[in-house]
Amino acid sequence: MKEWYFEYEIQVNRPGLLGDIASLLGMLRVNIVTINGVDQGRRGMLLRAEHDVQLERFEQILSTIETIAVTKFREPKLRDILAVRHGRYIQRDADDRKTFRFVRDELGLLVDFMAEIFKQEGHKLVGLRGMPRVGKTESIVAASVSANKKWIFLSSTMIKQTVRNQLMGDEHNANNIFILDGIVTRRSADERHMQLVREMMRMPTIKVVEHPDKFVEQSEYSIDDFDYIIELRHHPEEKITYEVLEKNTFMDEKSQGDMFGDGFNF
User: Which residues form the DUF3388 domain (predicted)?
Assistant: First the structure.
């Protein structure tokens, strides 16, 4: 079965327009998998057909319909699938096409987006930028659950500062999602931790790095190594600054050291 994404803009919004398009698809034996409005005046459909010729005929007929303007007719991309599912497109940076922007009100869309990435095979390096308490780590964990993947923290401040220097048992499985806090890893003086990070970076698996800009500082990695950069904000105008983040990390280290002694290191 062949899947295709069809998106059109309404030129003349007359009664029965959608019904006519659906009837045409039915006559060509093309199934509508999902349909939704994806933008003001635009509607998107995920279509499925047994043979390419059915979709080719549909495309030919579309060119004769004056009440709609076809904006996309292609094999579905991840953004297309999510746009139909959620009714809007993910915001993408105009200059850096691998950077995607979300606000906290869109956590459901973000989790869905990351879950689809996590379902992919092989190496994928994902960077996640955002200020404290915006939902970064929680979104990664929720996306791992949605993708039916186990998540492993290599470094984290989620509950207590954690720096791993070894893996145990099935944690070496390439099907796991490995999560790093870029600030914690950069500040770590544990060479065994850095060796573990390098080992994970070479594995054909999904890696998610919070604060990727700090992670690449004084390291052999660069932002160009990332396949996706995700930015999560409380509101669209929020600036992501690392002064506050590093101060919070330092305070976390101090308070945890006062309460519990040294952080987890294992």
Answer: 70-254
d(CA 235, CA 237): 6
Tokens of 175: 């099907």
- Helix, strand, coil shares of the chain, percent, nearest 5, are 40, 25, 35
Among 161, 152, 210, smallest CA distance to 181 is for 210
Query: Burial letters for 141-180: b for 16+ Cβ neighbours within 10 Å, e otherwise?
Result: bbbbeebebebbbbbbbeeebbbbbebeeeeeeeebbbbb
Phi, psi of 25 (to 5 degrees): -65, -40
Strand partners, 6: 45, 73
Instruction: Centre a 10 Å sphere on the Cβ of residue 130 and count the other Cβ atoms it contains.
Output: 22
DSSP strands (E only) in the chain: 2-10, 31-39, 42-49, 68-74, 91-92, 99-103, 124-130, 151-153, 155-156, 162-163, 177-181, 206-210, 228-233, 264-265
Q: Report yes or no on whether pTM surpasses 0.85.
A: no
Give residues with Cβ within 8 angstroms of 118, minimum separation 6: 143, 144, 146, 147, 149, 177, 206
Please tell me the distance from the alpha carbon of residue 64 to that of residue 193, in angstroms, as a whole number: 62
pLDDT in tens, the chain (266 residues): 899 999 999 999 889 999 999 999 999 999 999 999 988 789 999 999 999 999 999 999 999 999 999 999 999 999 999 999 999 899 988 888 899 999 999 999 999 999 999 999 899 999 999 998 999 999 999 999 999 999 999 998 876 788 999 998 889 888 999 999 999 999 888 899 999 999 999 999 999 999 999 999 978 999 999 999 999 999 999 999 887 666 665 555 444 444 334 444 54
Quick check: 46 and 3 in contact, CB under 8 A? yes
